[in-house]
Amino acid sequence: MKPAKKIIVTGAGGLVGMNLLTLINKKKYHVIAIDKLKENINLINNIFPDVETHTDDLSKPNKWEDIFKDADCVIQLQAQIASPKSTPYVKNNIDSVKNVIAACKKYNIKNLIHYSSSVVISVADDHYTNTKRKGEILVKKSKVPHTILRPPLMYGCFDVKHLGFLTQLLEMSPIFPVPGSGKYMRQPLFVEDICKITIKLIEKKPQNKTHNIIGQEKINFIDLLKIIAKEKKLHRLFLPLPIPIFLFLLKIHSIIMRKKPFIPDQLKALTAGDDFPVTAWDKTFGIPYTPFRKGIKKMLASPNYKYRLKMIRHE
């Protein structure tokens, strides 16, 4: 009997990784999940007992490289999204990418799927954007057969840092402060859409192409929140605040809750006003686009939604 294809998913404990592990056929593929956070690995073990797991920091060369031996495909998801300091961005968006590329070269991996971000074509100028740009360049110059995917703001089950976090806040308070007017356009993507594309790419020969997988609707940020509140049957007052006041309230919140859900750079990116070009990726990959209202309904109805709450408590 032909052995199952060996698929490695790095940064598997994040939004894309958890949804990918949900959708991928574990009988067809031998799936190996790598994440640097033990609590993420514990959660993966709890939900996906048939997935092989490893707790490793890919920014540090180590014996984890041997996991890549005989792999048919590597799906590179690990990334630093938020931090007040530059060092974590360099470690997780550049150093870890270099090390994964080195492991791919060492074991002659023929299919690397690298998750970049739409920020690389944005007007933003911050640690996340600049390090993601450099990470993408490393992949392009590596000569490892690859596909690069650039998603925008994503949402879905297991989302603990973006719309999922905001959904939790909506559940907590009848008054919801909004930075500025809230009328800055977003092009959100349901995470399952890009996961389905990724599963298709596992079976395709890489052509060293880059794909912008952008949401096909343009929705103001405040309207995203109103749609979520309506779906949750929450009556909320949305209170637009001058951005300096909003930042001050965020600081107070971080002191009380002892964690920082947003940093100023993220807020700047949110209000930057990017309008990303939308290509016909749905036709290219044969994956229909999920409208935002439908995606939010599916997210909130998911049997795994309770695990998103567990992850928020771990963060």
What is the assigned CATH homologous superfamily of one domain?
Answer: NAD(P)-binding Rossmann-like Domain
Shape: globular
CATH T-level fold name of one domain:
Rossmann fold
What is the residue-averaged pLDDT? 89
What does this structure look like?
This protein has 315 residues and is of the alpha/beta class. 43% of the residues lie in helices and 17% in strands. The protein contains 12 helices and 13 strands. The strands form 4 sheets. Strands 3-2-1-4-5-6-11 form a 7-stranded parallel β-sheet, sandwiched between helices. A two-stranded parallel ribbon has the order 7-10. Helix 1 packs across helix 6 (191-202) and helix 7 crosses helix 11. The chain starts with a strand and ends with a helix.
Summarize this entry quickly.
By secondary structure, the protein is of the alpha/beta class.
